[in-house]
Design brief:
394 residues; alpha+beta; Tetrahydropterin Synthase, Chain A; 4-stranded antiparallel sheet
Length: 394
């Protein structure tokens, strides 16, 4: 690059000429103020010896114009397409996105639903043509209804009327998740509020068909299941894309204002149930004992009947046998019957055989001789001595 010497000299002379004040002003003590450089317009006081920022900005602007333009200030032909192509490439690359395993992506084309994308590296037309919204579909969400908020809204949501026209205070929670991301985004404006409203409505309907005592004691699980089924049915009719996982009743009881009275009624009911159970126990015991006695008497009567029938049958068969023998030999049979009868009578008694031949006086036997065998003899009572008369021994 050839630069004229005059041009170089003109630029070097202000630095070498002591008469010229130079770019930083005249030396101190100088009287000629016309030769000093002017202060830039619009700028504040400049510190002597400091950098000139306006000059630096001007030089940067000149370099940028030299870079963007060719000779004579005209733009270079190959630079503008490069800039435009680079900007378009960056805009196109902004369409890549990643969907996590726990998410589902919904692609919107000019605000309208276009498609759903599964987890992985995906691409959509960059904004403003397409827009992506990611929804967590595996995350379990929880909505509380009622509770210890203390405000009027929480109290009104938790107090319900039972089937027997009693007021109950129920605090419960609903666990749910997103089943369909597209329906979840477009069906309702505030899905969390929709789930809460549906839960309160379903619980009121189920509680209104159930009595108070089963809700707070044995039928709590049934109430939870019916509420979950009714919520799912309602949300499906809306197309909300929400799946109800569980409904859990955390507390159920009367309002705080009537807790004391309810406790007294409950205690009275428990006492009545206890008395009824005791009465039922006594009744069952008496009935079972009576049934046992009746069965025992019936069995004894049946056994006696069998015994009597069999004895009578045996006697009749024996009589028939004896009668048959009697018809064959009447005399022998009569003697046999007589001997067997006397044997049966005399076998259990003491027997005394007396030969009456040559006896002239009756024989007196002691009474123990005729006592049956095995019977003990009565004790002998000694007679008291007779008092003697006075003077008998004199």
């Amino acid at each position: 690059m050839n630069v004229p010497r005059e041009h170089v000299a003109n630029h070097l002379m202000p630095w070498n000429d002591n008469a010229n004040p130079g770019p930083w002003g005249s030396p101190s003590g100088g009287d000629d103020k016309r030769d000093q450089p002017r202060r830039p317009s619009g700028g504040g006081p400049r510190r002597p010896g400091g950098p000139d920022f306006n000059a630096n900005f001007d030089r940067l602007g000149e370099r940028f114009r030299d870079f963007m333009g060719g000779p004579g200030g005209r733009p270079r032909r190959g630079l503008i397409p490069i800039v435009i192509g680079g900007a378009f490439g960056l805009w196109a690359l902004s369409g890549f996105y990643i969907v996590q395993p726990s998410e589902q992506a919904i692609v919107l084309t000019f605000g309208a639903y276009s498609r759903s994308e599964t987890p992985g590296l995906r691409y959509h037309l960059p904004a403003p043509i397409e827009h992506v919204e990611k929804v967590a579909v595996t995350e379990l969400k929880r909505t509380d209804v009622g509770g210890a908020g203390g405000d009027a809204e929480s109290t009104a949501a938790s107090q319900m009327l039972t089937g027997d026209e009693q007021i109950i205070d129920i605090d419960f929670s609903v666990t749910w998740r997103v089943a369909d991301a597209a329906k979840y985004i477009f069906a309702t404006r505030q899905p969390e509020d929709a789930v809460k409203d549906v839960a309160e409505s379903a619980m009121r309907e189920v509680v209104g068909k159930t009595q108070l005592q089963p809700i707070i004691s044995t039928a709590r699980g049934q109430v939870q299941q019916q509420t979950a089924e009714l919520m799912q049915k309602t949300l499906d009719s809306w197309g909300a894309g929400i799946s109800i996982v569980e409904v859990q009743i955390r507390s159920a009881g009367p309002p705080a204002e009537v807790v004391a009275a309810f406790r007294e009624v409950n205690n009275a009911q428990q006492d009545a149930d206890s008395a009824e159970n005791e009465a039922n126990t006594y009744r069952n015991r008496v009935i079972n004992e009576a049934k046992g006695d009746a069965a025992r008497i019936t069995q004894a009567a049946q056994a006696y009947r069998e015994q009597a029938v069999r004895e009578a049958t045996g006697e009749a068969a024996r009589f028939n046998q004896i009668y048959t023998e009697y018809r064959r030999a009447p005399g022998v049979t009569r003697d046999r019957l007589y001997i067997e009868t006397m044997q049966r009578i005399l076998q259990n008694s003491n027997k005394v055989v007396i030969d009456a031949k040559g006896a002239t006086a009756p024989i007196i036997l002691p009474p123990d001789v005729f006592r049956p065998k095995g019977q003990p003899a009565p004790p002998v009572v000694a007679e008291p001595p007779q008092p003697q008369a006075k003077g008998a021994g004199q």
